[in-house]
Amino acid sequence: MKIKLDIRSRLPLTILASLAILLGISSLFAYYKVDDIINDLKHQYMEEIASTTGDSVNSQIYNASNLILLTANLTSLADHIDLPEKWAATEERMGIERYLEHIKRAHGYYDSLRLINSDGYVLAGDRRIRSETINVAQEPWFKFAMQTDMLIISDPIIDFTKDTILLPVTLKIVHDAQSALVSGMLRINRLVQTILIGNSTPDVSIYLMNSGGEIVSALNSNALGKKILGDELSTVLTAAAGSLDGLVGNDGDVIGFYHIAQTELYVIAVGNRQYLETYAKDLHYLLMGMGFLILIVMGIIVVLLIFPVVRDIQILSSHSEKIARGDRDVVGQLSVQRDDELGLLASNLDNMAVELNTMAENAEFATKTKSDFLAKMSHEIRTPMNGIIGMASLALMDNPEPAQAHYLYRIESAANNLLGIINDILDFSKIEANKLDLKIDETYIAELFPPLQDLLASRINEKKLIFDVIIDENVPEVIFVDSVRMSQICLNLCNNALKFTEKGSISIKVSLKERVGDDITLLVAVEDTGIGIPENAQATLFESFSQVDDAYSRKVEGTGLGLSICKSLVELMGGNIWVESVYGKGSVFYFTSQLQVGNLQGMKKKPTQQTLCSDLKTTLKEIKIKPLHILLVEDNIINQEIACAIFKKTGMRVSVAQNGQEAVNMWNDSAFDIIFMDIQMPIMDGYTATAHIRQTEKGCDVPIIAMTANALSGDREKSLDAGMTEHITKPINIQEILRILTFWSQKLK
User: At 599, is the secondary structure helix, strand, or coil?
Assistant: First the structure.
């Protein structure tokens, strides 16, 4: 009778059989190797205890030693290393002593803190030595410390009769060609006692040993000064970490050891392995019996069950991989014919392939429809937005009444806010479609922030806030970065800070987090003194369409996409973004980016940190532009009026073409210095018109500037591929127009 087993029965048996085989082989191996295994495990265990304890001690000593670094970096301390050698209770010396005494008491690990001159005299230190002059010039730690500029941890100073073990920690400081030492004596027992208690067990004793083999710290004070190592001491002193068999008077013990970095101190862990050996004999027979029994029984099961199952699973795996890769030709190709769960899975995979084909076709159609819709909406919205912003800017230039100027500024501000929302939606759509790419270029880092300050200036001045940009001196001057996207991240974070900051300051701080060769990790922090963010809102802050949900945040504008876009851009740059905030006290947004250092010698003259003034009237007075004859190709009457007004205010002569065909005809009949070309026009579009102009002999070199509402991903590249010189988007940015006119008026001299 044939027994039918479904996969739920066969799979456990298969797994059990596989494990049994492994167990049997392991049992046979362990039968002959159990002594070595036990010994190796004991060595590994002791080395791990010693290393864990050593890491803790090392960290504790390092943290305590940092106090010397902090003390040595005090300017007031360096200014007084030329104090007289003989004691005199001057105000300066007493002030230093009070500070050192305060530090010593605040950090109970130190027995003393001293300021010592280059001749070994103690200039300032413990109050208990004030009545006499102390000279430590002959101390080994003093001689060694005066020969280097690094933080030095010397051999312990030991007095076993008083259970006193002090670890000298010294650092040389130099001021006005004079040298001195900041010296501290760490109390080893107090420093590591808690660590020794936490890592010791009934079977393991832990000691701290010096290079002479003497115990300098232990839970049992009677062990201080004793030597527990014999010939193996030399091995311990020459290795960073490890384990050994045998100790003085007890060859059955195993020790683990670990060298504390930058010191002559060693952690010694002593353990007894005898308790493991009592089980070795019984383990021999048990493993042997189990191994043979399981090998015989389960070997048969594996042969009968595992091979057919594995074969069919491999077929299903290969089929699913093809489906995952988007292979639409896999339907009906599955050769698994079974009447169990694997057969049902094969049928479901075929059905899933059919559904995925349909879904892929629908997704492609939806993506195309969405892209077409976004392109049309972007173009249609930007065209009237150009009229609103442009007309408001032109009206502000004609010295309106204060009330009218107020209304116009409000119109301009609201229109710019709407434009920001549109840009956020477009960027979000690019990110969703994985069509947002970085354009890396070599840039002065200082060049990134002045334009940003100009954009924020009016709102910052309106709120009377302080705005700072601080770049650490260790940050490279030139980096490879997508400057547009880096500026966009900073601008979004600053705009976010401005929404919630009514008084105080906003600052951008740039520092170098890490550098390996020419690869750097840049850390940027945007800090504000605003209302802060509740802790329960911080977890979802960088999610799409997320905003802080309270009465105050609902008063401000925004799509809730700004921080989500920042997160996506930061991740494109290989970095992370996070926030630290206390509600009611302000916030700090941090982000990192993985960049490369640029070539400073290969760059042009360093930027002067000056940008075009945000006030157009002031700009037009200051800027000197050579008059040019401009051909404006634009079918929209309002856009024509705005562009012509801007050009004429800069002294340009303007001719207008209503479409691409008219532009080609005018080009053939007249000479123009520069052409501003719309893209979407009746009769002939801007791409076609550009191609016709470029085909003429005089049209090879004329600058053709695409001035269009086409602002989606790839539109700029399409303009450049069509032969245009530059691509700017509507609404028209007057500062951008001035930049282009200034550049070409100088180049066309």
Answer: coil
CB 587 within 8 A of CB 580: yes
Q: Which of 375, 392, 491, 379 is nearest to 729 (CA)?
A: 379
Residue identified by tokens 């832990």 is 206
- Strands 152-153 and 157-159 turn out to be unpaired
Q: What angle do CA 192, 197, 203 make, to 5 degrees?
A: 130
Query: pLDDT digits over 213-263, tens only?
Result: 888 887 777 777 788 777 778 888 888 888 877 654 455 567 888 888 878
Residue type, 149: D
> Class of the 442-597 domain?
alpha beta
- Tally of CA atoms within 13 A in the half-sphere of 670 that contains its CB: 15
Instruction: Specify whether the CB–CB gap between 344 and 373 falls below 8 A.
Output: no
Q: What are the structural domain ranges in the chain? A: 41-279, 442-597, 616-747
- CA 418 to the chain's CA centroid: 31
C-alpha closest to that of 570 among 526, 619, 624: 526
Residue 465 contacts residue 501 (beta carbons within 8 Å): yes
CA 160 to CA 154: how far, in whole Å?
18
**Which of helix, strand or coil describes residue 630?**
strand
Nearest Cα residue to 172 out of 134, 140, 137, 144? 144
Region of poorest pLDDT, from 547-556, 633-642, 725-734: 547-556
Q: What is the mean pLDDT of the chain?
A: 77
Q: Which long-range contacts (CB under 8 A, 24 or more apart) does 722-730 make?
A: 722/686, 722/687, 722/690, 722/691, 723/690, 723/691, 723/694, 724/677, 724/686, 724/690, 729/382, 730/382, 730/383, 730/385, 730/386, 730/639
CA proximity to 419, closest of 393, 445, 442: 393
Report d(CA 574, CA 593) in Å as an integer: 6
Q: How far is residue 653's CA from residue 78's CA, in Å, rounded to a whole number?
A: 68
Model pTM above 0.70: no
The model's pLDDT over 137-166, given as tens digits with 9 standing for 90+, comes to 888 888 888 888 888 888 888 776 666 778
Looking at 1.20.1290.10, 3.40.50.2300, 3.40.50.10210, 3.50.50.60, the CATH number of the domain 616-747 comes to: 3.40.50.2300
Burial 675-698 (b: 16+ CB within 10 A, else e): bbbbbbbeebbbbebbebbeeeee
Q: Who contacts 588 (Cβ-Cβ below 8 Å, separation ≥6)?
A: 525, 526, 527, 528, 579, 580, 581
Strand partners for 664: none
**Share in percent of the chain as helix, strand, coil (round to 5):** 50, 20, 30
- Is the CB of residue 692 less than 8 Å from the CB of residue 724? no
Backbone CA torsion sign across 696, 701, 706, 712: positive
Asked if 476 and 445 count as a contact pair (C-beta separation under 8 A), the reply is: yes
DSSP secondary structure string, 257-317? Answer: EEEPTTSSEEEEEEEE-HHHHTTHHHHHHHHHHHHHHHHHHHHHHHHHHHHHHHHHHHHHH
Contact 632, 653 (CB under 8 A): no
For 443-458, the pLDDT digits (tens) are 899 888 887 887 788 7
What whole-number distance in Å separates Cα of residue 174 and Cα of residue 403? 64
Q: How many residues does the chain have?
A: 749
Reported CATH class of domain 41-279: alpha beta
The two structure tokens encoding residue 318: 């290969």
Residue type, 748: L
Q: How far apart are CA 703 and CA 747, in angstroms?
A: 11
Local structure of residue 615 (DSSP, 8 states): -
